[in-house]
Amino acid sequence: AQKVTQAQTEISVVEKEDVTLDCVYETRDTTYYLFWYKQPPSGELVFLIRRNSFDEQNEISGRYSWNFQKSTSSFNFTITASQVVDSAVYFCALIKDTGRRALTFGSGTRLQVQP
Amino acid sequence: NAGVTQTPKFQVLKTGQSMTLQCAQDMNHNSMYWYRQDPGMGLRLIYYSASEGTTDKGEVPNGYNVSRLNKREFSLRLESAAPSQTSVYFCASSELSQYSNQPQHFGDGTRLSIL
Prior knowledge:
By secondary structure, chain A is an all-beta fold. Chain A contains no helices and twelve strands.
């Protein structure tokens, strides 16, 4: 069975602060894919990034960056210089390469960015 | 660019009533999914369809049935609604291929309340 843990239930920061959202996963599969989704107050789910288990390169996209460390089974997400528009619930999710290819989600981290 | 369309967006039912949630995608994806989202939890898989004509149970299938009507449409039916089924329901689709890291695209959700 696979599992995704987001230990931070809620984080509150002041605008322009950097913030890191933690994600730890468990899987027995050697090939898998990790995702981050954003759910703004409007409720839709917005895809942010995917990473496969072969590729441990960190990635930066504008103010967003992701740190994938297979040794610690973590896939953390950092927002640099946070903005009010970043306020949302962020979900980390995992999908395996075989069998039922459905996402296993973490419970989400609610980020509140105060002006 | 419709993507994944869910209807209705909101619904209130009485215990014991039945209803069908509709989902359609226009991206020619093979795989379609139904998830439910409850407060403080991530999305959980109800049912999954890898391709037209096939369906498979997910993590929380009890009380639900599904129909993969054609490649575009995947409906979720509650035969006898119960208050425990009050939730937000998301439909998703993805391209199932050797590149299973393709992100799932989500509809905007259906908020369902069972009184």
